[in-house]
Design goal:
Order of helices and strands: HHHHH
Helix content: 55-70%
Number of helices: 5
Largest sheet: none
Number of domains: 1
Structural class: mainly alpha
């Protein structure tokens, strides 16, 4: 998962799109509930329902799902992370300080873990 999710950082390849932590949370969930056959509509619907719940809860807690908008909320502006000078400014502003991206990642991980644990309790 870590290897597959490497380029999700910075809103997918540093482009400021969907938060990589949110994408990773949904990937983790779908390792458990994702469909194994393209035709499996029931499993598709189940995975979508649970992923949508994580998405909604993430947006409610963080304020947005786009990396660039999360930056704007947290730092008052967004950074074009694909530009080395803006990436450096983002780091200097605290982008990887505890209350920056690591906190956002923590929220996404907590939401995924809670959902996965609920599923395991319901099935066992």
């Amino acid at each position: 998962m870590l290897k597959a999710a490497t380029a999700l950082a910075g809103g997918v390849a540093r482009q400021g799109e969907t938060c990589g932590a949110l994408s990773g949370a949904i990937m983790a969930l779908c390792c458990l509930v994702g469909r194994e056959k393209l035709e499996d509509r029931d499993q598709y619907d189940r995975a979508m329902e649970l992923a949508a719940r994580i998405f909604r809860e993430f947006r409610k807690e963080i304020g947005h799902s786009l990396c660039s908008e999360i930056q704007r909320i947290r730092y008052g502006r967004s950074y074009r992370l694909f530009l080395p000078e803006e990436r450096q400014a983002f780091h200097q502003m605290g982008g990887h300080a505890r209350n920056g991206c690591p906190e956002v990642c923590g929220v996404a991980a907590r939401l995924a873990a809670r959902t996965i644990l609920e599923l395991k309790q319901d099935s066992g």
